[in-house]
Amino acid sequence: MKIHAEITGWGKCLPPAIMTNDDLATFLDTSDEWIRTRTGIEERRVSHLGTSHLATVAARNALAAADLDPNELDLILVGTCTPDEIIPNVASAVQRDLGAKYAAAFDLNAACSSFLYGLHYATQAIRTGAHKKVLVIGAERLTRILDWTRRESAVLFGDGAGAMVLEASTEETGLLASHVTCDADARDVLALEFGMSFDRFNFDGIMPFNFVGQEIFKRAVKGMNIAIDKVFAETGLTTDDIDSLIPHQANKRLIDYLAKRCNVPESKTVINIQKYGNTSSATLPIAYAEALEQGIIKPGDTIVSAVFGGGLTCGAGIIKWGQRVTPKQDNQMQLPGTDKSALDLILPMHLATKKAWESRGNE
């Protein structure tokens, strides 16, 4: 009997502080029109708490939707490129805070592709019998690593988290096929120069963020095209069989391209980049959670997703949704509130980085 990995729970976490394009224009040489016409983004969220807090709230919501006790989990996988610290991992904090004492826990970093990578490997683990109930999370606090003096990258990203619960099932449901890959020749076109090679004794307050937009777009299109062809070939499905497209939310123009490529009309393409910007590994699970809330995903729907991220990682997957599209319990838990606005949280980083760049220029 073939085992599948059914998605039984879903949830998201979005910080309360909202940074609009007009807010950004108060300290960057940009405007709402400049950002919207190039990216489709109108606002994004800024978190006052760390990545593990975002991940835990999203996880609690996903468990509530599945009506699953945390102690039933045997694996927690967190996709992130913005962990609270290098050691220990974010997943261990989630395990502790959920009280999921029987679950193995690890982080996965494929940048914006991390969540789909996580679904890919979690599904394989369930199919082989290695695990039975897995929590997959995508969580990012990208606003803490951006150079807030550089409009070409600072306007693109936001904070958030999303999660799914996968459970072993004999029904043909969940991730039917997936393909993940990496175009490492271009790994430097999207990179943050910060890590174990970082010289902490000579740190001047600047973390250079390399973002070569045109090259990223070109390679992303190529990589996702290949991945999409692979999953269609593996399943024998065609674009006529697809009910919805839920893509990585990186750029409105790229989403429009994918919709045309997959022959999915705008009415069946999930787009929320205008509200949250690019939340990296969190974009897919947030988009799925909202698609369910809005009634876009119907019982038995066939959904295609495609992603790309730093590395350059790429991937695509076809998901067959199960019969349940409503949570078993309320899954709208949120982060604790804050009296700080998004500008309150961002301006100190902008001013500190600006001062650091000026000091470096005077050397």
UniProtKB/TrEMBL annotation:
Positions annotated as active site in the UniProt record: 112, 248, 278
Major localisation: cytoplasm
Entry-linked InterPro entries: ACP_syn_III_C, ACP_syn_III_N, FabH, Thiolase-like
Beta-ketoacyl-[acyl-carrier-protein] synthase III N-terminal domain residues: 106-183
GO molecular-function term, one example from the UniProt record: beta-ketoacyl-acyl-carrier-protein synthase III activity
Keyword Lipid metabolism listed: yes
Enzyme class: transferase
Keywords (A to Z) from UniProt: Acyltransferase, Cytoplasm, Fatty acid biosynthesis, Fatty acid metabolism, Lipid biosynthesis, Lipid metabolism, Multifunctional enzyme, Transferase
Region ACP-binding, annotated ranges: 249-253
Record remark: domains: The last Arg residue of the ACP-binding site is essential for the weak association between ACP/AcpP and FabH.
Listed name of the protein: Beta-ketoacyl-[acyl-carrier-protein] synthase III
Organism listed in the record: Pseudidiomarina salinarum
